[in-house]
Amino acid sequence: MARWEPDARGRLQQAALDLFAEQGFETTSVAQIAERAGVTERTYFRHHADKREVLFAGSEDLEELVVAGVRGAADGVSHLEALVGAFASAQDFFDERRAFVVARHQVLAASRELRERELAKLAALAAALAAALRARGATPVTASLLGDVGVAVFATAFESWVVDGGSLAAQVRDVARELAQAIHDDTSVGER
Amino acid sequence: MARWEPDARGRLQQAALDLFAEQGFETTSVAQIAERAGVTERTYFRHHADKREVLFAGSEDLEELVVAGVRGAADGVSHLEALVGAFASAQDFFDERRAFVVARHQVLAASRELRERELAKLAALAAALAAALRARGATPVTASLLGDVGVAVFATAFESWVVDGGSLAAQVRDVARELAQAIHDDTSVGER
DNA sequence: CGATCGATGTCAGTCACTGCCATCACCTTC
DNA sequence: GAAGGTGATGGCAGTGACTGACATCGATCG
After folding, report:
1. Which of A104, A178, B19, B139 has the fewest CB atoms within 10 Å, i.e. is most exposed?
2. Contact B149 A183 (CB under 8 A)
3. Is the residue at A23 inside a domain?
4. Which residues form the domain of B40?
5. Residues A46 and A91 in one domain
6. Quick one: B95 and B165 in the same domain?
């Protein structure tokens, strides 16, 4: 028999999500999270770098998935299409976890500190995407811009997926179309 | 004669910037900043909400300036052009403070925590721009996307302005052109 | 069976941040 | 011009996030 219950990390994540949802992020202490997970505060900090990070444990997985999607895009595919396809391929990732993802999203929306951390994660994702785009021939500036644009498109699509449900992939495509339209119209107007 | 030296807030900003540059953000304590500014730690927290915020005191001014630029754009001007014009009009704001802005930028670049806060400020700027775009007729989704895109363009242009100097307005326009090109090419390819 | 390892517990300590109350130059009011 | 109000500050105690150092002990390896 194991000396401790297994999966302390997972228990900490669940305890944190529940407590943040019940009573808010700021009014929850790390000691409380640890207690509910059946470990000490010190053990919490061995598994999660700080109080916020516990809600972002899966973010490396998503980043790997989406970056792999860009790297796997065929050569003939445009950069923007590669991004859209990569995000669309993450659909299963979210569908499999919908209840958790939605609950987490509501907790994030309620806390300025947590939203701040989410922005940092999205910025890291954008940087990773930019690197992948450079690897397929985009100039540094274009790659960086498109990385940011891709993340903005995804974030917008994600928002409506949380609210309305449906196909995340389809929503990513719709939002990307709306963006291309907006930029294209602008450019046309500008060239008049 | 005043009971205390005036402009405690400004002294705190200068002391913080200097100390962060000298010895790094993490290894500087708020007590140190307060001491160098000639006040107590308690007074620091009356002027700045937390240890990071001291470097973002002017950010509301920039936001007002750029938002006013969008609101002041003529009706016939496209949304993207309105954004580009608004950021270009902030050129003086940056030129007047170049030494401070560049030093601050280097401090930000060296600290993960400070970069995180900067992302939050840029997100607030993007949201304010989106509201201004909605006021001139953009749909909510388009406004939000273009807000993010505008900030991404500005951030890229700002980066090269810090490194190379020159005209920030011209760099904003160049980056916006490169973005429109990238999206336009993508869209064309997609329509083939 | 003994040495090592890995995950945890324990404890003391630093530092960011807050609430509460005192102080005191300056200003208003009668 | 004396009494009282105001605003910016100091002082101090307290909470909670986070860290370093060391001890514990079941599991594993040789």
Report:
1. B139
2. yes
3. yes
4. 8-53
5. no
6. yes
Residues 6+ apart with CB under 8 A from A50: none
How many Å apart are A117 CA and D14 C1'?
28
Distance of residue B144 Cα from the nearest chain A Cα, in angstroms:
8
Q: Which of B81, B144, B152 sits opposite A148 (nearest CB)?
A: B152
Same-domain check for residues A113 and A140: yes
pLDDT tens for each residue of B93-148: 999 999 999 999 999 999 999 999 999 999 999 999 999 999 999 999 999 999 99
B16 in any annotated domain: yes
Residues A28 and A63 in one domain: no
Q: How far apart are CA A98 and CA A191, in angstroms?
A: 44
In eight-state DSSP terms, residue A77 is: S
Q: How confident is the model at residue A111 (pLDDT cuts 50, 70, 90)?
A: very high
pLDDT of A125-170, one tens digit each?
999 999 999 999 999 999 999 999 999 999 999 999 999 999 999 9
CA A41 – CA A30 distance, rounded (Å):
6
Which residue in the set B78, B144, B186 is minimally distant from A186, CB to CB? B78
- pLDDT per residue as tens digits for the range B37-76: 999 999 999 999 999 999 999 999 999 999 999 999 999 9
The answer to whether A183 touches B183, Cβ cutoff 8 Å, is yes
Number of folded domains that form chain A: 2
Give pLDDT, residue B191.
45
Interchain pair A117, B116: CB under 8 A: yes
Q: Is B163 on the interface with A (CB under 8 A)?
A: no
Q: Are residues B148 and B176 in the same domain?
A: yes
Supply the CATH number for residue A22's domain. 1.10.10.60
Cβ contact, residue pair A119, B120, below 8 Å: yes
B47 and B63 housed in the same domain: no
Residue with tokens 């919490």: A44
- Interchain proximity A148–B149, CB inside 8 Å: yes
Q: Look at residue B32 and tell me if it is in a domain.
A: yes
List of A residues 16-75 with CB within 7 A of strand D = 28-31, 41-42, 45, 49-52
Task: Note whether B46 and B98 are same-domain residues.
Answer: no
CA-CA-CA-CA torsion for A50, A124, B94, B170, nearest 10 degrees?
180
Residue with tokens 């445009």: A78
What's the gap in Å between the CA of B6 and the closest CA on chain A?
32
